[in-house]
Amino acid sequence: MNRVILIRFGEIFLKGKNRGFFEKVLFQNIVSALEKFNLKVERVSGRYIVKDYDINDENKILNRIGKIAGIFSYSSAECVETSLENIEKIAVEIMQGVGGTFKVETNRADKRTIALNSMQISAYIGGKILEACNFLKVDIKNPEHTLFIDIRENHETFVYEKIYYGVGGMPVGTSGSGLLLLSGGIDSPVAGYMMAKRGVRVSAVHFHSHPYTSNFAREKVEKLAKLLVPYTSSMTIYMVSMTELQEQIHENCDNAYMITLLRRGMFTVAERLAKMHGRKMLITGESLGQVASQTIESMTVVSEVVKKVPIIRPLVAFDKCETIDIAKKIGTFETSIEPFEDCCTVFLPDNPIVKPELYKVKREQEKIDFDNIIERAMQSVEVVQIVE
Ligand code: ATP
Ligand code: MG
């Protein structure tokens, strides 16, 4: 028996002339994601094959493949040299481990080696399975199990029973790179995941208000980034202090504008970091109307400070429960709900402005030395490298 993992890609198929490039990037991403295992990855006729691995690692490898963007589905399969006898033997062996109803589905890329057509092969192998496993029943319309027989051109046939669905989307690195504004909340890790899934190489900026916010807040963000890394590949976090900006706003401005001015500061710093490090977009976890700072008016006056890169808000139309579903699926939810202080909760006004007007915001901003404060915030940047 020769056990392998078959990997099928998704949207890359649609990419016409660029297909070669996408396939190469995905191949490289698979190789680096599986680096710590002893195995081989090969590219054969429209798929990738993982082989020569220790069977004890199989679940870990499958789990890791499930987090690589650009993979549509994958299966662990038995690989045999193409012949009816070989297929029959392995098919019976696989189906001996399951119960209930089943059908057989055959796909032939190689139409020469076996003289039967796909339907006939399915019927023949199905019959042999029934003979050997009298506890199974055939159900063509609604089977509990489907045994797949995939006959490839190179005289190899893959036989498998389970298909797992992957992240889908595009390989990381095929859609440029972005800077994620990563808080310790539920939304921003999901936003980062969504863009990684679209092929964006994601790094992050986190704003803290040390010593008002504790080291715990920072550790939490690092923990979230670590959970995201299997999806994004390695990740850099720029840690930036907003303490002076918040103190200055608190002392000099109408406190109702605290969040608006703080967020203008965050976006100003984020754009500067994006330009310095060649990031082509800012990414946030904002969702329209979720809180006072996410009304269209708030988003407009805050975005106004960003001139040269687009702000991508993948969750803008999501309900919180939809975001939570994804957070649970990708494994960030439990960490996100741990209690922590965000810089947005420091000096929080009782009545934040819900629909800020730009001229009033600018008037408040002029009460502090905004540009120099931002300059000093830039000096505070610490770089943290998160690896898997
Ligand atoms: P989240 O769950 O992502 O914290 P939220 O619903 O709490 O989002 P806000 O606190 O208004 O909403 O933040 C909106 C977005 O602004 C966040 O999704 C994130 O992208 C960014 N953001 C907020 N606080 C920070 C921070 N301390 N550092 C970096 N980005 C932040
Ligand atoms: Mg938040």
Helix content: 25-40%
What's the story with the biggest beta sheet? 9 strands, mixed
Order of helices and strands: EHEEHEHEHEEEEEHEHEHHEHEHHHHE
- Average pLDDT, all residues: 94
Report the portion of residues in β strands.
Answer: 15-25%
Return the structural class: alpha/beta
Low-confidence stretches: none
Basic shape:
elongated
| C-alpha termini separation | 32 Å
The tally of strands reads 15
How many H/I helices?
Answer: 13
Rg = 26 Å
Ligands present: adenosine-5'-triphosphate, magnesium ion
Provide structural commentary.
By secondary structure, this protein is of the alpha/beta class. Helix 3 (84-96) packs across helix 4 (118-132). It has 13 helices and 15 strands. Helices cover 39% and strands 22% of the residues. The protein has helices at residues 19-33, 58-65, 84-96, 118-132, 187-197, 215-232, 243-252, 258-276, 296-303, 320-330, 333-336, 358-365, 370-379, and strands at 3-9, 40-44, 47-51, 71-81, 100-108, 136-138, 145-151, 156-160, 164-165, 177-181, 201-208, 235-241, 281-283, 311-312, 382-386. Strands 1, 2, 3, 4, 5, 6, 7, 8 and 9 form a 9-stranded mixed β-sheet that branches. A 6-stranded mixed β-sheet has the order 14-13-10-11-12-15, with helices on both faces. A hairpin with a 4-residue loop joins strand 7 and strand 8.
